[in-house]
C-alpha cells in the first residue's frame, strides 16, 4: 500500500493484548514495507474499537485487534452501533488466552467455594472486576453468579492495565483477567492469589490451580480468543495478503516464545476458519447469556 496501515487496538496501552498488537504492527510494517499507525481505542469491552472499525473504509488499510467478545457477547447484552455478523471480515485468529480468577492477597477466601460462601453470607459484599462489560471475564462472572445464585458486585474496567493496578491496591476483592506474565509474577510474589482458571486444562505454570470445569462450573470455563478484523467489503486479495503476512509472523520463534511465556496459545490459520470459530462461539453464547439480560452492577 502507498498509505500507512491503521491498526485499532481495543484495549489501553500496557496490557498483554496491547503488547501483542504492537508486536504484530511492527512485524507487518517490516513485512509489507509500510508504516503502521497504532491507535488504542479502549472502552465497552472492545465495542468502541469495533464501532470505529465498522465506520472505516473497506480498503484494507484499517484493521482492528480485539477479542471476539464484541462480536459474540456484546450483542447479547447491549445494542452496539454495528451488526456483528455483517459489518466485519474476520482476518485471522491470533491467540487463545486463558482467564485467571485472581484475589487480592488480603482477601480471606482461598478457594472458589469459600468465596461463594462469603458472597452468600454478605450479598454484594464481594466486588469482582473484569476488563469490561460483555468481555469473557465478565461472562465468567455472570455464569458463576447464575449457577450459584449469589450476589456479587461487578466492577467493569476499560481494559486490563488499570484493573491490575487497582487489584494490587485492594480496590476490589476479585478479578477475572486474561493470563499474562505480569499477573503470573504477582501470583508468584504473593501479591495476588489464583483461585481458578478458565482454560482447556490446568496451566503448566500453575498446576495447583483448578479449572472452573473441575470445580463444577463447566459453562463458566471460558477463555479468550483474539484476532484481527477488517471492515466488511475489504477486497479479498488484500485480506489474503494480510492473512499470509500475519501467519508468517505467528511462526516467528521470538513472537511465539513471548506469547507462550505468558501461557497465550498462538493460533493463526485461514480467515474462513476464524469466521467459523466465531460462529461456533456465537451459537454457544446464546445458551450462556439471555438477550438483554442486565449485567450485575
N- and C-termini, Cα separation: 45 Å
Helix content: 25-40%
What order do the strands of the largest sheet run in, or round the barrel if closed?
2-1-3-10-4-11
How many H/I helices? 11
Structural class: alpha/beta
How many E-type strands? 11
What's the helix-strand series? EHEHEHHEEHEHEHEHEEHHEH
Largest sheet: 6 strands, mixed
Mean model confidence by pLDDT: 91
Unreliable residue runs: 291-297
Beta content: 15-25%
Shape: globular
Radius of gyration: 19 Å
Walk me through the structure.
By secondary structure, this protein is an alpha/beta fold. It is 39% helix and 21% strand. The strands form 2 sheets. It has a 6-stranded mixed β-sheet with strand order 2-1-3-10-4-11, sandwiched between helices. The model is unreliable at 291-297 (pLDDT under 50).
What's the SSE blueprint?
Elements: E1 5-9, H1 16-32, E2 36-40, H2 47-54, E3 62-67, H3 69-72, H4 74-77, E4 88-97, E5 99-104, H5 112-121, E6 127-130, H6 136-148, E7 153-156, H7 160-168, E8 174-178, H8 181-189, E9 192-198, E10 224-231, H9 236-249, H10 253-261, E11 265-266, H11 271-288
Parallel strand pairs: 1-2, 1-3, 6-7, 6-8
Antiparallel strand pairs: 3-10, 4-10, 4-11, 5-8, 5-9
Which labels suit this protein?
39% helix, single chain, 5-stranded mixed sheet, 6-stranded mixed sheet, disordered C terminus, 297 residues, 21% strand, 11 helices, alpha/beta, 11 strands, globular
Summarize the structure.
Helix content is 39%, strand content 21%. By secondary structure, the protein is of the alpha/beta class.
